[in-house]
UniProtKB/TrEMBL annotation:
It holds the Pfam family ChaC. It comes from the Bacteria. GO terms for cellular component: cytoplasm. Its EC number is 4.3.2.7. It is an enzyme of class 4 (lyase). Keywords: Lyase. GO terms for molecular function: glutathione specific gamma-glutamylcyclotransferase activity. This is glutathione-specific gamma-glutamylcyclotransferase. InterPro entries: ChaC, GGCT-like, GGCT-like_sf. One of its GO terms (biological process) is glutathione catabolic process.
């Protein structure tokens, strides 16, 4: 699949006659809310696990030295916690550009912390996209993140802010926290 998903996403869902859509955010969409929303609620989705397996050439790295950002990997029984936003369909014009490096919009069922469920959308970078990097040991992922820098800032900010947001949401994301502690160890041993 082509690296730039903007055109592909525009053909995926028909928003005609729809006033608002639920969007599930599990990565930077939790803490970098640069879009208007009508409502916001912590939520979970089932069967997906958050992983730092996607390369970032346009936000937290460059084509020569990609950073690592999160995507979702199918995993039966897994529960992924995040933040759900109810947005106007026009918001996807901005989000499709922001998430253009490999992410496609998929339909999902989300369960809100305050009870109830809704159908909505989630951006996922599947392994057939050109920027997909895949699995690596936490220490290697942390080393790559420590070195990467892109137009949206250092890759370390992405990891540290995500880890902090997940703690605030009460999510025990072992994968994210393992990479965070490797990064902190590496940074303190460099001093
Ligand atoms: C998301 O946050 O839901 C998608 C991945 C990202 O932009 O970090």
């Amino acid at each position: 699949m082509a690296a730039n998903t903007i055109d592909h996403n525009r053909t995926r869902q028909n928003f005609e006659g729809i006033d608002s859509v639920w969007l599930f955010g599990y990565g930077s969409l939790i803490y970098k809310v640069d879009f208007p929303f009508l409502e916001q609620k912590p939520a979970t989705i089932r069967g997906w696990a958050r992983r730092f397996w996607q390369g970032s050439h346009d936000h937290r790295g460059t084509p020569e030295a990609p950073g690592r950002v999160v995507t979702l990997i199918e995993q039966p029984g897994a529960v992924c916690k995040g933040m759900a936003f109810r947005v106007a369909p026009s918001v996807f014009e901005h989000l499709d550009v922001r998430e253009k490096n490999g992410y496609l919009r998929f339909s999902t069922t989300m369960t809100f912390d305050d009870g109830g469920q809704a159908e909505g959308l989630v951006y996922i970078a599947t392994e057939d996209n050109e920027a997909f990097l895949g699995e690596a040991p936490p220490a290697d992922i942390a080393r790559q993140i420590a070195q990467a820098l892109g137009p949206s800032g250092p890759n370390t900010d992405y990891l540290l802010r995500l880890a902090e947001s997940l703690r605030e949401l009460g999510d025990q994301c072992d994968h994210t926290f393992a990479i965070e502690s490797c990064l902190k160890e590496q940074l303190s041993s460099e001093r």
